[in-house]
Write a structure and sequence with these properties.
Pfam families: Ank_2 (PF12796). Keywords: ANK repeat, Repeat. The structure is a single chain. The protein has a domain of 52 residues: Ankyrin repeat-containing domain (Serine Threonine Protein Phosphatase 5, Tetratricopeptide repeat), CATH 1.25.40.20. It is 42% helix and 0% strand. The protein is globular and about 30 Å long.
């Protein structure tokens, strides 16, 4: 569940970006790293915040996503 693509994104990054809440929850329950960082340092929570997905943000936060992790530009979720 923690394999990465060419940009360093995990399946959880893609689920977060696509607002696939059920898939994201299943991935987290299966052991996905909720704070995984892509090649730009962005976490799944960064993705959900950037595209303004409050339900996904709420899920990630409830499962332990950290808001204070900066991406490579110093931005936090």
């Amino acid at each position: 569940v923690n394999r990465v693509d060419a940009r360093g994104c995990t399946a959880l990054h893609h689920a977060a970006d696509g607002d696939k809440i059920d898939i994201a929850e299943a991935l987290i329950d299966a052991g996905a790293n909720i704070n995984a960082r892509d090649d730009d340092g962005a976490t799944p929570l960064h993705y959900a915040c950037v595209v303004e997905l409050p339900g996904m943000c709420a899920l990630l936060l409830s499962k332990g996503a950290e808001v204070g992790i900066p991406d490579d530009d110093g931005e936090t979720a």
